[in-house]
Amino acid sequence: MNIGEVAERSGIPPKTIRYYEDIGLVRPQRSGNGYRAFRETDLHKLAFLGRARALGFSIEDCRNLLNLYEDETRASAQVKAIAEEHLSAIDDKIAQLQDMRETLSHLVEACRGDHRPDCPILKDLSGDLKNIR
Amino acid sequence: MNIGEVAERSGIPPKTIRYYEDIGLVRPQRSGNGYRAFRETDLHKLAFLGRARALGFSIEDCRNLLNLYEDETRASAQVKAIAEEHLSAIDDKIAQLQDMRETLSHLVEACRGDHRPDCPILKDLSGDLKNIR
DNA sequence: TATAGGGCTTCCAGTCACTGGAAGCTCAAG
DNA sequence: CTTGAGCTTCCAGTGACTGGAAGCCCTATA
C-alpha cells in the first residue's frame, strides 16, 4: 500500500503519517522507487493511533499504549494507569473550561451589545470588579 | 517601574511581558540604562491581558479587546461579539472533552487493571468494538 | 513518443503562546 | 572591589501537526 491508500483507510492524512514515521511510531518499509510500502499491520497501528488521539491521548501516551498493545506480557494495570491519568487530566480541563464559561457567560449576559461604549466585559477585564455578582 | 516589579504586580512573568512587547501588546519606554520603564498604564494593560488570558481569550482576541478598551468610540456590541464567539468555542471544547470523558471512563471501568494482559481499553483502541456498548 | 496529471519524495518554515538557557551589561550593598 | 541580583538580547525548544516548494515516479492519452 502507498501512503495515499493508507491515509484514506486509516483516516490519517499523509502528512501526519510521515510525521508519525519521523518520530518512530510506525516504520513502513520502502519500495524500490523510494515510496513507503505499508503492510496491513502498519495500517492497523495507524488506526489504533487515530483512535487513541481521538480520545485525547498525547503522542507519548500513544507510544506507550502501542508498546503495551504489542507486549503480550503486559499487565492491564499498566494500561489502566495511563488511561486513568489521562481521564483525570480531562476532568481538570473540563473543570477549568467550565469556570471560564461561568464567568464569561455572566459577563456576556450583562453586556447590552449595542452602539454605546459602556461594557461590563471590558470593565471586568480592566479590574473594575464592582460590576456583576 | 522595572520589569520585575511589573511582573510581581501584574502576575505575569518577565519572560511573558517581554514576549508581549515583542508582539506589540505593550510598548514600555526605556530608561537610560536600557531597562524597560513601565508606567502605571502599562501595568494596567498587562493586568487586563492577564485577566483576558485567564478567561481563555487568544492573544489576537486580547489585542482586539485592548484596542476596543482604549477606543472611546467603541460599540459594546463589538466586545460582546468577540466574547460570544469565544464562549461558543469554549462550549465546543467542553462538549468534545465530555465525549472523550464518556468513552474513556466506560473503558476504564471495564478494565480490571490486574496483572493479566486482557484489556478492554486496548481492545477498543485496536478497533475491536465487540466490547462495551 | 511526448506530455500532462497526479502521487510520491524530502526539506524548510510556520503555527500558538510561551519558556529555558546562555552570554553579558547594570546596579546596590558590603 | 567584589558579589549577587536584576536586567538585556538572542537562540532554541515545546506539541502535534500543516503548508509549501522543488523535484522524482508512474500511468494514460494524443
UniProtKB/TrEMBL annotation, chains A, B:
Any Pfam family: MerR-DNA-bind
Official protein name in the record: Cu(I)-responsive transcriptional regulator
Organism this protein belongs to: Pseudooceanicola nitratireducens
Main location: cytoplasm
HTH merR-type domain mapped to chain residues: 1-68
Gene3D superfamilies: 1.10.1660.10
Location relative to the cell: Cytoplasm
InterPro entries according to UniProt: CueR, DNA-bd_dom_put_sf, MerR-type_HTH_dom, MerR_fam, Tscrpt_reg_MerR_DNA-bd
Alphabetic keyword roster: Cytoplasm, DNA-binding, Transcription, Transcription regulation
Annotated PROSITE patterns: HTH_MERR_2
PANTHER family referenced in this protein's UniProt entry, alphabetically: HEAVY METAL-DEPENDENT TRANSCRIPTIONAL REGULATOR HI_0293-RELATED, REDOX-CYCLING DRUG-SENSING TRANSCRIPTIONAL ACTIVATOR SOXR
Any Gene Ontology CC annotation: cytoplasm
GO terms, molecular function: copper ion binding; DNA binding; DNA-binding transcription factor activity
Any Gene Ontology biological process: positive regulation of DNA-templated transcription
